[in-house]
């Protein structure tokens, strides 16, 4: 195949002569269009970023609430340990961190500290008092059961059994539990099952006829409620300016 090199070179030279450079006006128009696009896009990007920060911040506040709930429902597995309301601590957040319920002190998406308000009403135990038997003047051993719900237990070192003189209304004999399931005292001995409430009690001297045998003890009650409010100062970093980000819970019972 034979190429016409001379013809090709002539065509290339003609094309170069016909090609035009961009005019100044065309460059100005293109630059203006690019500027309009940039001005239109940047505010949208900024708005999206702020919305994302607000979402992240509210999620952080919610995670603190979840930690507070975990504190009241699972941080005290020992039945004999009392639940201490978080607001009793100088720094409730530090208390949550110490119990591994939070990894670190929470900050909002603008790296600001947050305000937290926690108010709670908790019940750790209840006192029960009542008559369990009536003496007949001859019986010294008594077997009985006291109230002990299956999901709770009698708190050790809180059970006391005693007899009362009907005339003087004074205590005549008394035994107490030693915290390990035994009833001890100068008046008698016995055993107590903290979970079932079963008791076996023997007095050294038989309670008198019609002399009431009474007892008092404490039982664990896991329960209560708390209210939580967490506040971020928002993008303006000032509380109370209308841009505050708030997560608050209704009264939460446990």
What do you see in this structure?
With 254 residues, this protein is an alpha+beta fold. The chain has helices spanning 5-18, 24-74, 92-98; strands at 115-134, 141-145, 160-164, 171-177, 182-184, 188-192, 198-203, 212-232, 245-248, 252-253. The protein has 3 helices and 10 strands. Strands 1, 2, 3, 4, 5, 6, 7, 8, 9 and 10 form a 10-stranded antiparallel β-sheet that branches. A hairpin with a 6-residue loop joins strand 3 (160-164) and strand 4. The chain is rod-shaped. It starts with a helix and ends with a strand.
Q: Which consecutive residue ranges, at least 5 long each, have pLDDT under 50?
A: none
Shape: rod-shaped
Instruction: Report how far the terminal alpha carbons are from each other.
Output: 94 Å
Per CATH, the architecture of the domain at 124-222 is Sandwich
- What is the overall number of helices? 3
| Strand composition percent | 25-35%
Oligomeric composition of the shown chains: single chain
In terms of structural class, how would the helical and strand content be classed?
alpha+beta
**Can you give the helix content as a percent range?**
25-40%
In angstroms, what is the radius of gyration? 40 Å
CATH topology title of the domain at 124-222: Immunoglobulin-like
- Number of DSSP-assigned strands: 10
**What kind of sheet is the major sheet?**
10 strands, antiparallel
The overall average pLDDT, rounded, is: 82
Sequence of secondary-structure elements: HHHEEEEEEEEEE
């Amino acid at each position: 195949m034979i190429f016409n090199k001379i013809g090709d070179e002539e065509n290339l030279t003609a094309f170069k002569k016909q090609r035009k450079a961009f005019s100044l006006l065309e460059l100005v128009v293109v630059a203006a269009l690019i500027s309009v696009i940039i001005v239109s896009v940047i505010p949208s990007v900024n708005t999206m970023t702020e919305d994302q920060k607000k979402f992240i911040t509210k999620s952080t506040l919610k995670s603190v609430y979840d930690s507070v709930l975990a504190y009241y429902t699972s941080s005290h597995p020992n039945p004999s340990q009392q639940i201490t309301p978080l607001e009793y601590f100088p720094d409730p957040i530090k208390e949550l961190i110490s119990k591994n319920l939070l990894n670190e002190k929470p900050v909002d998406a603008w790296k600001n500290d947050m305000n937290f308000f926690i108010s709670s009403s908790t019940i750790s135990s209840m006192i029960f008092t009542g008559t369990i038997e009536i003496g007949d003047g001859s019986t010294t051993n008594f077997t009985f059961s006291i109230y002990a719900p299956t999901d709770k237990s009698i708190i050790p070192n809180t059970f006391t059994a005693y007899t009362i003189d009907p005339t003087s209304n004074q205590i005549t004999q008394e035994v107490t539990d030693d915290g390990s399931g035994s009833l001890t005292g100068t008046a008698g001995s016995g055993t107590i099952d903290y979970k079932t409430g079963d008791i076996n009690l023997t007095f050294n001297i038989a309670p008198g006829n019609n002399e009431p045998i009474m007892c008092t003890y404490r039982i664990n009650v896991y329960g209560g409620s708390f209210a939580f409010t967490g506040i971020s100062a928002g993008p303006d970093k000032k509380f109370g300016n209308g841009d505050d980000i708030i997560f608050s819970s209704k009264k939460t019972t446990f």
